[in-house]
Structures are given as structure tokens and as C-alpha cells.
Amino acid sequence: MRVITVRTKTELESAKNAGYEQITVEGELANKLKSSKKIAVAGTITIGLLTAALAAVPFTGGLSMAAAVPIATLTGLEIAAIIAAATLGLGLIIALFKGYEEISFEAGKMVLKKKQS
Length: 117
Prior knowledge:
Number of helices: 6
Low-confidence stretches: none
Structural class: alpha+beta
Shape: elongated
Largest sheet: 4 strands, mixed
Number of strands: 4
């Protein structure tokens, strides 16, 4: 079994693209992934609303709380999940949880296992 540990968004994306069977995510990235998981399993309409809302927010290096509140109201998602999604990127989150399932999570450490096809 090919296993890897990642700590950055770039490492996570590379591990997913390389098709590792198990990815252990550590640090703040693990916490952001846990928060954003709700978005990956949200319905198509919610994801569409979120995508449109995030596209309308001016890029300032990060999503501010002031911009996140109306998006949260519109989509029904938690502000923490929206900010995490804006940081990590919706495409990465959706693709990751489409191909991997969460095996375990403790603060600062998430283990993902590739879904069997």
C-alpha cells in the first residue's frame, strides 16, 4: 500500500493526483479539511451557490469574515467551512472527498483512504 504524509495544500494535491492509497494529513491543513468536508458532501445547488458567491468576492489574499457571513446565510454552511473552502479551493476539496474517505480524525491529523472502485 502506498502511504504518504502531507502538511501543505501542494503536497496534498500531488498525493491525490499520484493516487496514493492512504494520505495522512497533518497540522492546520487537517483541521481545514475537516471543516470543509461538509462542502464536499453538499448538494449541487449549494455548491453552485457557493462557487458563485466566492467568485463575486474580491480577491484580497483570503476570505474575510464580512464576506463569509452573507455566503453562509445563502448556502446554510458554517463560516469556518466556507473560509476553509476558500483557502483550499472547492475543486480540490470536492475531488479529494470524491476519491477518498475519511478513516480517522483527531485534532491536527486526518487519515484518508482511497475509495475502492
